[in-house]
Amino acid sequence: MDQVINKTVSFLTICCVLGSSLSARAASLPEIHGFLEMDYGVNVSDDNTKRDSFNLLEQRFQLKSIYYFEGDNYLSDKGASFNFKGDFTVDEYFSGKTDYDLRELNLSLAPLDFLDVKIGRQVLTWGTGDYLFINDLFPKDYISFFAGRDDEYLKKPSDALKLSFYPSWGNVDFIVSTFEQNTQAKGDRLSFFDLFQGGIAGINSDRDLLEPPLQLSNNEYYLRYYRSMGSNELAFYYFRGFDKNPTSIKNEADRQLFYRRLDVYGSSLRGPFAGGIGNVEFGYYNSREDSSGTNRLIKNSMIKMLAGYEKDLGNDLKVGFQYQYDQRLNYGNYIANLLPTDFVFDEFRHLLTQRITKLFKNQTVTVSLFNFYSPSDKDGYVRPSVSYDITDHWKITMGANIPWGEDDITEFGQMKKNKNVYARARCSF
Amino acid sequence: MKKITFLILSFILVSSLSAQADELSVNEIVDKANLAAYYAGNDGQADVHMTITDSQGRKRVREFRILRMDIEDGGEQKFYVYFRKPADVSKMVFMVWKHLKTDDDRWLYLPALDLVKRIAASDKRSSFVGSHFVYEDVSGRGIQADKHELVDMDERFYKIKNTPIETKGVEFAYYYIWIDKTNFVPMKAEYYNKQDKLIRSIEAMDVQNIGGHPTVMKSVAKDLERNGQTTMEFSNVQYDVGLTENIFTERYLRRAPTKWIK
């Protein structure tokens, strides 16, 4: 282990020097930025995953650049830019496996005064929640989230075409993308509740996840209408695609799960409230393949509601609170069709979150605590972190991921054997 | 003869005019200073290079392009701040709709997450991007927030004492501003605590005429309690560049306006 760390530190230093000279040299070329990072996360609870002692040990090298088209041509005239961001990784968890993660590769332009177009691989976000997503149905990486990577990696990129219209009566975003599932614990790095194993599973899990094949009819569509009313922002959302988690069963004997078809209708409102920022969001999840809720193998339709509030208390201290309410619809039909051996999921879920952030030393030290707590599921997830910008280039972050729960079946309860403490060192250039 | 009468008349007129200028009320001076410092032109752009030096002499650099548009002279304004350095915040955008009677609206765009974040803005006295300037230094402290007294005047400056009307959330007890009599640019500010101890100062180090507007090109804010200072240097300053209000919307948070940030 020591050797690995030594190797990594010298690698980081060399690359950082290299990176700095790279960004300094490029005067006429588009600027290149990026960072080098080493992540190390110690597993502090026993589970049955690939490795007992740690669940994160990797080096990451990110490069990003943006090129603005110039000269007398169409692309320049339309303010076009070409965006690139990619990560090279060396993952010691999988015995030094090298990988390449293309996070952005897209062309962005405004062909008309009232139209923006972005085509290619891109990270997409909307909605009003803080770590809670009702109408943000874009793909996420929860392994990164629970393992202790930077927040950036919670969002997975989509291969998409995004059209944004800006008529006088509001703003409309329309996105079409290929299906991309959420990255969820699957037993190798992080343990989770596997219903075929009947409990929390690690490498013994052998589920078969059936993705919708890549074809036109499996494309996903996202629509948002939003406008501001004074200081308030009102939005309506529509989504037609798939559940990005494999929540439904295709074939029990073969342990096959699949991504059910899903429509979501939603709305949100955000604006100044009681000396801070308030937000409310609503979503109706229509389970298209089981809208009556009678099929025990397919997850039912749901409604989700969220209310949040954030306030700046002065002296670089901020607090935020959220409440989310989930309800499974047609619950009677669901219960009536269950078999005696089935696991039973609750009808209601209440979830509270709290965030507190305090900055010190000219905002170079950030101390933050995020808490999820569900009184109905009797589970929660504590995320403390401290980061320090040592210089404009070097930053270190330490933190912990502490999911807990009475039951194995709940969202955070199933993650309870993945408690970890992590450290990251990053050199940006 | 007529000519002489005219000359004399003009002379008297001019003298009485300048006598009038000397008799400007304190509120008029403060009004003019507010306009000179924060409302030059109908809009403006500038590149800002900020050097933050902490009490131990460590330096940090922030670089950003700032776009400003006045909705009304002396009234509401909109700001768009596009970060270039340090690298980890490059392409980040900070946007403010400044209001006089209610809290400002603030947004932050984080490009890595494509996230448009709404920021609670009740605390205007907190540090701007970790520097020794606070938000109010950048966008202007509402002139109705203080009681103003003209305490001194010499050939060059009006010295004005400002005492906050609402003391909650304000770290000083009062402050003095020295305003240049020729162009009404605030040249120096000194902040005192309740014990009459000087705790903070801001000074304009370089003023240049840009398109007819006297413009502070370099200023230094000092924290005299904990030591440390921030130097703000402006370059590429232009006024009346023709910014439109739609730049200050979510559309251009997500897709920076190429023309204005190149």
List the keywords.
heterodimer; A: 429 residues; mainly beta; Porin; 18-stranded antiparallel beta barrel; three-stranded mixed beta sheet; 4 helices; 23 strands; 9% helix; 51% strand; globular; B: 262 residues; alpha+beta; outer membrane lipoprotein receptor (LolB), chain A; 13-stranded antiparallel beta sheet; 13 strands; 44% strand
Q: How would you explain this protein's 3D organization?
A:
The complex is a heterodimer of chains A (429) and B (262). Chain A is mainly beta and 429 residues long. Chain A has one domain (2-428): Porin, CATH 2.40.160.10. Helices cover 9% and strands 51% of the residues of chain A. Chain A has four helices and 23 strands. Chain A has an 18-stranded antiparallel β-barrel. A three-stranded mixed sheet of chain A has the order 10-14-13, with no helix packed on it. In chain A, strands 8-9 form a two-stranded antiparallel ribbon. In chain A, strand 19 (348-360) and strand 20 (365-374) form a beta hairpin. Chain B has 262 residues and is α+β, with helices and mostly antiparallel strands. Chain B has one domain (25-261): Lipoprotein localisation LolA/LolB/LppX (outer membrane lipoprotein receptor (LolB), chain A, Clam). Chain B has five helices and 13 strands. Chain B has helices at residues 2-22, 26-38, 135-139, 250-254, 258-261, and strands spanning 43-53, 59-70, 77-85, 93-98, 105-110, 115-119, 146-153, 157-164, 174-180, 186-192, 198-210, 213-223, 229-239. Chain B has a 13-stranded antiparallel sheet. In chain B, strand 11 and strand 12 form a beta hairpin. Residues 15-20 of chain B have low confidence and may be disordered. The chains are: A mainly beta (429), B alpha+beta (262). At the A-B interface, strand 1, strand 5, strand 15, strand 16 and strand 17 of A face strand 6 and helix 4 of B.
